[in-house]
Amino acid sequence: MNLIKIIILVAISTMLFATLGLAIQQQVEKQPVDSPINPEKLVRSIVFQPGAKEYIVDNSQIASIDVAPQVIAGRIFVPVRFLGHALGLTSEQIIWDAATQTITLVCSKYSVDLAINNKVITSNGISKTMDVVPWLADGRTQLPARFVAESLGYQTLWQNGLLIIWPIGEPVPKIDVLPETVNEYDLQTMTVSETIEFLAFLDSPVENAQVTTIAGQLPNAPRPYRNGIHEGIDYYLAAGTPVVAAGAGIVIRADHDFIEMTLAEYNEAVRLSQATAITPEKMLDKFRGQQVWLQHQNGIITRYAHLQHISPNIKVGYAVTKGQQIGNIGNSGTKSAVVGKILSAGGVPHLHFEVWLGDTYLGANKSLSENIYMYRAIFDY
Ligand SMILES: [Zn+2]
User: Fold this and answer.
1) Listed residue (136, 327, 146, 353) closest to 250, CA to CA
2) Distance from Cα 223 to the centre of ligand 1, integer Å
3) CA 377, CA 381: separation in Å to the nearest integer?
4) Confidence (pLDDT) at 74
5) Cα-to-centroid distance, 206 and ligand 1 (Å)
6) Greatest CA span in the chain, whole angstroms?
7) What CATH superfamily is the domain 192-379?
8) CATH class of the 12-167 domain in this structure
9) pLDDT one-digit tens code per residue, 115-154
10) What does the alpha-carbon distance between residue 28 and residue 60 come to, in Å, rounded to a whole number?
11) Does the pLDDT of residue 306 top 80, yes or no?
12) What separation in Å is there between the alpha carbon of 239 and the centre of ligand 1?
């Protein structure tokens, strides 16, 4: 486990920063972050930006992070060590207990406890419930920055795409220096090999299942019945086959209260789709049936559709580990399900599985052979 993989950038450079429409020039020194910038002291301000591998301390110092903060389920997550150092803690004051999966942050005034996949945060003995949980991905503990900062004597503000943190009781700090966004990942522009590397943290959504080579079950296959195209991959397997999380992540959707369309509703959805140039998202969502969506690192979202059942512990805001069961294969959202064929031979149960980054699904602009190669490389090996 390499929690402190640090990029030390010490470069004095002249940079342009915008503030309220005004550009100012400032000389800034980049700091290593294997130690706090201001140990045991509340800093005047910290600024995190999702996607930026830098954060700003006291409106002047730039510190590097090797994994950019990311927004998941509406909260900014920062790896524990970087968050701790930003908030003034030394490495010794950031305690990870692998056996109990707990994190303790201590300094002269505060003692804060959190646990993986647990919404409770305790600060100086007082517990509070968060709306998200700390989670582990690739050996890194990701913490919701806002709740942790607020437990260590800070207040927070989400403004113009930035998380601003400053001591309780003080006025909102002036922010002139902004982090530089560096990792703009885009599935459209990545090559096949770059995409395979980028998604190496994912595995098959069904254990021991193989990626199909049938064109009609792969991305970009036409779907004439709804005037659309296929945005994912299908795994045709028996109803009830367990579906697992393709990677560590946070549940952002789980349709526990799913109700199947009636035949009239289904026919109306088909009619509306046929009347439009491409299947409207609202209709597409109905055709995907009962779903679970997970959010992973770097903004990646995986979607699991046509489920028959969702595991009870799969709840929005909670973390899942790679390989954890999230539900079972079914045929919800398909015509077969609408007419009640799930268990019959004609029920054609299958998992429909999608991978998204922003507005792009995995394989959107790739050829059939590229997609077979790419999906196999990511999910089969
Ligand atoms: Zn499908």
Assistant:
1) 136
2) 9
3) 6
4) 83
5) 14
6) 71
7) Glucose Permease (Domain IIA) (2.70.70.10)
8) alpha beta
9) 999 999 999 999 999 999 999 887 889 999 999 999 999 9
10) 6
11) yes
12) 15
